[in-house]
Structure prediction request, 171 residues.
Amino acid sequence: MTDAPSGTAAAPAWAIRAATPADVDAIMRLETSTFTSDAWSRAMMQADVSNPHCHYLVAEDPGHPDAPLLGYAGLLSPRGSNDADIQTIAVAPDARGHGLGRTLMQALVAEAVQRHARRVFLEVRADNPGAQHLYETLGFLPVGVRRGYYQPDNVDAIVMRLELPARKVIS
Prediction:
């Protein structure tokens, strides 16, 4: 899957593909630089990327596949479950503002639909209005707060939910 920023006819700005366990080191470099105080551990990320109930994506520069990742995102969505959860998403600072975060989120929501989920949940830091705005423009609505969820910073998490359209079964 490739994509380019909206409104441009230039070559794709990124290439998106399914993550594999071999990507965990690159994912962790972006994870620890993005989420300095509350990054996931390598073991947690390895477990999620390897989990068949999860769907992880990585975004790369199509002209430089050995360059650092431009972004990654992960979804937990067991097939047959009504609920899916956006586990994590990160976009490298120099790749922000070009639609990559939106593209990753849309791909995860599409995967949740394919897995027959009815709702997608996520948590977002209360002190991250940019991410909150992105999620709201994608149709996520705030449904609750988890006080002090992000540690050690003691920052609240806003829980957001997206209701997915029911899939029609053709008989």
The longest strand covers residues 141-150. The two ends are 31 Å apart (CA to CA).
